């Protein structure tokens, strides 16, 4: 009886935030659509077809309902909702087994950069395509010598002033979902300024442009990474997002959205659900239930931090850099902790792809074991997050 009570405690502990009635209704609408037979059948098909799954068909169904980018204005294919609804969508996609990474890149990160920094004509061009699922986008920042230190980027864009175009040369690495993206948001140097942070610009580059070569990079995780070579890629000057040489401020807006912790939290939650379902079905010991309860409480904290950052961004259009660093650091490190604990509890069985270590809905713990370390590197390493926090939060 004591163990049963603990099981009930674990199931009920996950924190309910004060979402509005309209937000809860939106969540129910999303859940109902994601769990339709059509979408669940497509989910099963894409997961069977490829380890690095292609969810674009599902995204188009969501786009037809106006649900793919709920925070976009209605004139651009959205629902005039807030970033809270956008985060709810990501949560429920993950809970329903729908791959969310491409959506986070396309709508939540790049879409919001366009909303905040693009011209009206650029919004009219890009946002409806992203909102209906007909086009997707990836981020092209990192280079072979420069990952976290974006101020040292070497890729260049040369202004062909007489033609109204730019020619882009460079090499980008470790980008995600590039093979199924239509655009790349690329950071390049457009001039040599005294400060390394000046002279950067951002462009939305069509990835089918002449001079773009995309190659797969061998990766530890099931999700492939890609190298993108840009050899004299010519883009119109209307492809520049923000002002010339002012790309650093635009990048910071993008990183604020990327570092909400949402993408990392939903992975941690999904992997916890995988472990929890398996352990409960195996009649857990009391010590196992205690370990699961501890993890669940940490997930509550991560979810709280995530929504705190999102709510601040939603209200102000910007976010405290140290707060987003705290959320990203906590969520990514927690995702690793969840996976390590899963292997500790189940031992060698957790390393098996099938049977003991696999859930048709939540995936493979073996796969998560290979993916988790990369979360502490993407969007800024844990060490850089700690440096940011120490600079902005600690007083000596």
From TrEMBL:
Domain spans labelled Acyl-CoA oxidase/dehydrogenase middle: 138-230
UniProt keywords, alphabetically: FAD, Flavoprotein, Oxidoreductase
One Pfam family named in its UniProt record: Acyl-CoA_dh_M
Acyl-CoA dehydrogenase/oxidase C-terminal domain span: 245-391
Family: Belongs to the acyl-CoA dehydrogenase family.
Any one Gene Ontology cellular component term annotated for this protein: plasma membrane
Matches recorded under InterPro entries: Acyl-CoA_Oxase/DH_mid-dom, Acyl-CoA_Oxase/DH_mid-dom_sf, AcylCo_DH-like_C, AcylCo_DH/oxidase_C, AcylCoA_DH/ox_N, AcylCoA_DH/ox_N_sf, AcylCoA_DH/oxidase_NM_dom_sf, Mycobact_Acyl-CoA_DH
Protein name according to UniProt: Acyl-CoA dehydrogenase
Domain of life per record: Bacteria
Cofactor dependence: FAD
PANTHER family: ACYL-COA DEHYDROGENASE, ACYL-COA DEHYDROGENASE FADE34
Source organism (scientific name): Rossellomorea vietnamensis
Domain Acyl-CoA dehydrogenase/oxidase N-terminal positions: 20-133
GO molecular function (one): oxidoreductase activity, acting on the CH-CH group of donors
């Amino acid at each position: 009886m004591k163990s049963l009570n603990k099981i009930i405690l674990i199931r009920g502990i996950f924190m309910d935030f004060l979402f509005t009635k309209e937000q809860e209704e939106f969540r129910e609408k999303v859940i109902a659509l994601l769990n339709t037979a059509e979408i669940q059948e497509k989910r099963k098909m894409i997961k069977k077809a490829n380890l690095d799954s292609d969810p674009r068909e599902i995204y188009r169904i969501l786009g037809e309902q106006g649900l793919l980018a709920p925070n976009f204005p209605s004139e651009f294919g959205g629902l005039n909702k807030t970033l809270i609804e956008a985060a709810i969508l990501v949560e429920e996609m993950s809970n329903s087994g729908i791959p969310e990474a491409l959506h986070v890149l396309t709508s939540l990160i790049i879409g919001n950069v366009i909303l905040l920094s693009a011209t009206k004509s650029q919004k009219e061009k890009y946002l409806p395509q992203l909102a209906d699922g007909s086009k997707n986008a990836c981020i092209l920042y990192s280079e072979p010598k420069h990952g976290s230190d974006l101020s040292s980027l070497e890729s260049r864009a040369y202004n062909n002033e007489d033609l109204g175009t730019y020619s882009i040369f460079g090499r980008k690495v470790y980008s995600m979902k590039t093979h199924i993206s239509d655009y790349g948001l690329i950071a390049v140097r457009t001039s040599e300024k005294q400060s390394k942070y000046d002279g950067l610009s951002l462009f939305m580059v069509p990835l089918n442009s002449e001079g773009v070569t995309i190659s797969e990079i061998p990766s530890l995780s099931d999700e492939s990474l890609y190298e993108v070579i840009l050899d004299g890629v010519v883009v119109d000057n209307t492809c520049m997002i923000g002002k010339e040489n002012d790309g650093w401020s635009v990048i910071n807006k993008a990183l604020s959205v990327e570092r909400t912790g949402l993408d990392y939290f939903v992975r941690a939650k999904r992997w916890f659900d995988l472990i929890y379902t398996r352990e409960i079905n195996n009649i857990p010991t009391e010590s196992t239930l205690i370990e699961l309860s501890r993890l669940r409480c940490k997930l509550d904290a991560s979810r709280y931090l995530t929504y705190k950052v999102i709510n601040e961004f939603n209200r102000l259009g910007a976010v405290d850099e140290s707060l987003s660093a705290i959320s990203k650091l906590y969520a990514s490190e927690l995702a690793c902790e969840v996976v390590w604990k899963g292997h500790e509890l189940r031992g060698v069985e957790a390393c098996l792809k099938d049977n003991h270590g696999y859930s048709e809905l939540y995936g493979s713990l073996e796969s998560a074991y290979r993916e988790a370390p990369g979360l502490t590197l993407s969007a800024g390493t844990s060490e850089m997050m700690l440096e940011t926090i120490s600079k902005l939060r600690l007083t000596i």
